[in-house]
UniProtKB/TrEMBL annotation:
One GO process term, biological-process aspect: interstrand cross-link repair
Name by which UniProt lists this protein: FANCC protein
Domain of life: Eukaryota
Gene from which this protein is expressed: Fancc
Pfam families named in the record: Fanconi_C
One GO CC annotation: Fanconi anaemia nuclear complex
Length: 559
């Protein structure tokens, strides 16, 4: 039976025909077909329940005259009632058909029939009381329930795991090897039982199993079901099994990455420690040690950044992910570690090596020199006549953006250390304004230089007011034209954090610029990145850390 490409979401007739076709799933072909349709069937049953739950039994039967026949057939299909929440949903649907005050003999008979089905479903919840049904499943795999009556599932799993592992190590022994179709059949029959804890060793073995075939031997429905259960925390798998799942079925990797982004956007996170925790829990930063996984995840992040017009929130997520990836990569065993070129194959490798160096790996006194080195390499690349297309320019910019930690340090170093301001300002100007059409980037450097000079004049002042900062704040609030308010916001925020008197007017100034412009999210993300780095490096003094926390608390309410 070929699996239908598309199944209408609430096509009652379709599922009734399927239920009749399947019967009690006694043939191998019908069992395979049931397993392949289980996720869609469960969705249909849930929608059916949502449709009839408030309508009453009479209206439900008028709307779906053959509903009893459908539910009755499905209740006796062991594969259906063994899958995830289908058994529970069937019970809910049956309860909707039950007449609390039966008016005639037909309704009395229907109630009796419903009670008997509910009793059957409740008794089916124990494996031991279902020998006849389970034996159908087991015999399809070449076993009999009598062999493993007491610990049926555990013994079956152990046996299959042993068989698969022996075959993996003895792949050249053609006579003793397992056929690809048998491995495929095992993966299909696992679909209804994915969330059963005793099945985990078999799931792991299947995911790590690679036969001699160049084609995928595990069915895509199995891979999808495992991925879905893992993302919803219904099962726990070793890292190696999850990585293998994503490597052998890239659509599942894309689903996992989009799921992570949805998670990060749908919950209120108050620190990057929380963001990092959610990311590590997803296993994606650890999995990114495999170059193909890293490149695909990076591509999805890149698209997310473009779709959100360079959102500072997405940028921060990408930067934290990159840091966690580097951490995982550095922890890799040297024998299994891939070279950086495998992750960034099309980029200027000296620039990659410069950006990959984590700030904590270098003495703070060397940061300024390192930033100048990055700026010089980047400027030479960008001004190279070979970099003619906007696509090439965007790829270079995105590489720099992934390692935005260095950009935050660059803005700090301008104010805190003896640096060559021209090189660092050019670096920041490129980060915030990569294109140079109509001399945009050149003008941004000029604007930034003016703001920087003004802030440096005020840096050592002991008594500051908001009026003193007007030349900078006006460039952000739009009273004066500014080629790039983002760079000015970055410089001004750092001035408030690190200058001796900036602390006194920080809250007032940030309230002023975020009230009159749409920069709340940008300032918030800059502050949580700074707080995250301070927590891990111990750079910030007590007063600055206290101010950071106060500002974040106020901005959290606005973002």
């Amino acid at each position: 039976m070929a699996q239908d490409a598309t199944v209408p979401k609430l096509n009652f007739g379709y599922w009734l025909d399927k239920a009749v076709e399947w019967g009690q799933a006694t043939t191998l072909e019908s069992q395979k077909d049931v397993c392949l349709h289980l996720p869609q069937l469960q969705e249909f049953l849930h929608q059916l329940y949502e449709t009839i739950k408030h309508s009453g039994s009479t209206v439900a039967i008028q709307q779906f005259p053959l509903i009893g026949q459908l539910l009755g057939r499905l209740c006796w299909n062991p594969f259906v009632i063994g899958y995830d929440e289908s058994q529970k949903t069937l019970m809910w649907c049956l309860c909707c058909l039950y007449s609390s005050e039966p008016q005639n003999a037909v309704e009395l008979k229907a109630n009796s029939w419903i009670r008997s089905l509910l009793c059957h479903l409740l008794s089916s919840s124990k494996w031991e009381s279902n020998e006849a049904e389970i034996s159908t499943f087991v015999s399809a795999l070449g076993y009999t329930s009598a062999d493993y009556y007491c610990h049926l599932v555990k013994n079956m799993v152990v046996s299959l795991v042993t068989e698969l592992r022996e075959n993996q190590f003895n792949g050249l022994n053609i006579q003793g090897s397992i056929s690809a179709s048998r491995v495929n059949a095992v993966s299909i029959f696992c679909v209804p039982l994915i969330t059963l804890p005793d099945l985990t060793p078999l799931l792991e073995t299947l995911l790590l199993y690679h036969g001699g075939s160049s084609k995928e031997i595990l069915c895509s429905e199995f891979l999808e079901a495992v991925n879905e259960a893992f993302l919803k925390k219904k099962i726990s798998l070793p890292e190696s099994a999850v990585f293998s799942l994503w490597l052998r079925h890239l659509p599942r990797l894309e689903k996992a990455t989009l799921h992570l982004l949805d998670q990060l956007f749908s919950i209120q996170l108050h620190s990057l420690e929380e963001v990092a925790c959610v990311m590590k829990d997803s296993l994606l930063p650890q999995a990114a040690s495999h170059p193909p996984i890293f490149r695909i995840v990076n591509e999805i992040f890149k698209n997310a950044l473009m779709e959100t017009d360079g959102s500072s929130g997405v940028m921060t997520i990408i930067q934290v992910f990159t840091q966690l990836f580097l951490q995982a990569h550095q922890n890799e065993n040297k024998q299994h570690k891939f070279p950086l070129k495998a992750y960034f194959p099309y980029h200027h490798q000296p620039l990659v090596r410069g950006l990959v160096r984590r700030p904590f790996e270098l003495p703070t006194t060397y940061w300024s020199q390192h930033l100048k080195h990055i700026s010089d390499m980047l400027k030479a690349l960008v001004e190279d006549t070979n970099v003619s297309s906007l696509t090439d320019l965007f790829e270079i910019w995105f590489l720099v953006a992934c390692f935005g930690e260095w950009m935050d340090i660059a803005a700090e170093q301008l104010l805190k250390a003896a640096v060559e301001p021209d090189a660092v300002l050019w670096l920041l100007a490129f980060y915030y304004c990569p294109k140079n059409e109509n001399q945009q980037r050149t003008q941004t450097v000029v604007e930034a230089q003016a703001v920087y000079n003004h802030l440096m004049m005020l840096f050592s002042c002991t008594d500051l007011s908001l009026k003193d900062l007007e030349p900078a704040t006006h460039r952000i609030t739009g009273i004066e034209q500014c080629w790039n308010q983002h760079l000015t916001t970055h410089l001004l925020t750092n001035f408030l954090l690190f200058s001796p008197s900036g602390h006194k007017i920080a809250q007032e100034c940030i309230y002023h610029i975020t009230k009159t412009t749409d920069t709340s999210e940008e300032v918030y993300n800059l502050l949580i990145r700074t707080a995250y780095r301070f927590n891990h490096s111990g750079e910030g003094d007590q007063r600055t850390v206290k101010l950071l926390n106060e500002l974040l608390q106020k901005l959290t309410l606005k973002v």
